[in-house]
Amino acid sequence: MVKSAVLSFLVLFLSVLKVTAQTGTLPILYIETENHQAIVSKTVYVAGTYFLVDPFDPSHNIGTKSSPLSLEIRGRGHSSWRGKKKPYKLRLGQKAPLLGMKKHRHWALLKFYAPTVAGMQLGKTMGFDWTPSTRPVEVVLNDTYLGLYLLAETNRISPQRLNIYEQPDENDDERTIPYGWLVEVDNYRENNQVRIKENSKWTINLTCHSPEVLSEAQNKWLTDEFSTINAAIYDDDKSGSTWEEYIDVDAMARYFIVQEVMDNSDGFHGSFYLHKDSVDDARWIAGPLWDLSCNEREKTDYTFRMKTSYVFTPHWIGELIKDQDFCDAVREVWNEFYPEKIEGWMNDIDQRLSPCTTAFSKEIVLWAYEDQASLHERAERLKTALLGNIEWFNEHLPSTDEDVIPGLLEGQTQVMKVEYVSTSGMRSSQPSKGINIVETTYADGSKKITKTFIK
Fold it and tell me: What is the pTM (predicted TM-score) of this model?
């Protein structure tokens, strides 16, 4: 009887241990707050210590269990903070190059999400000024295993991140106020915001990330600046394109393409960052990217026009797409990306997700995921959706020119059919694993043959 009870206890103990102990297949970040204080605020930091262990690259190790380093930690996010698994903001006591990323004090621990990994890699592929890097990491907080996170660089102006001029808080110098900004078009109300009327229905909330504390002069300048930009975007005469005097059209085209390829409904709704440097002819530049998702649905229209399960306010893009200069910029950037860079991006996704397979299997159990699909299954599902988005967008490239058929590259006629041919000769409307020959048939009977590789 006693032996049976002991055996039952050991079985239960070992099953719990399997879920609550780190896998050792990824770097491990250990954090301990003072007196094991709980983290309950998104504004108030809790003091603590940390050390980082990388079992595969000891050069990444920072601190030790006996000699940890200081940090402060608080909650972060909006809807994500309401979830069972919490995201966190870290402020290190001293700058550190975490897991090979550039040395800095400010970091985020985000819920591990495959579209975030894919989207950030797409930003790097698309050539943004700067895109945050992420690394998978297992987290132990106050001796409790929290599972798999993405350790991420945060959007900040600094030489190690968004390397532009940064104006000071509470600046009254009219000569420098127009330069050195990082703002976010936000779907939440914050204290450090200016707000303008976009149209009769919508208001644009602009959260100031740098500078954070505005003087009256800064507040007035930013309000006037974006009121002028908004009026230019909504000008009925699209031939003038005066908004281009304020916003970099190439960067906005790249931002639009990322949101469409990802099918990210929040792209022009929230986490929509813009920055402005101190250079000749300085204009607002879209980016850096943040908070990317993928709906993983059949794409039937531009993302900003498709329905979502929540109230969605797509700022500006409905007007910008009416402007031929913007459409031309989109098509020019698209020609850089399609089809040459697709295979490399797909390979990047695989290379970054595959090391996380074991930890994610434990993550599913630890946090009681409703979707029990493995990380490999999720990655394949995601890549299939992304490739579908790419092909839809390629067939529907924007244009206001009646002489240009939407969706066509220069010199092509209307796309009639796209087929994927596997190495065994099987044809399908969807790609298969391995090498695929992509056969595109046009209305004039011509065909275009390309190759892609799906793991």
Answer: 0.86
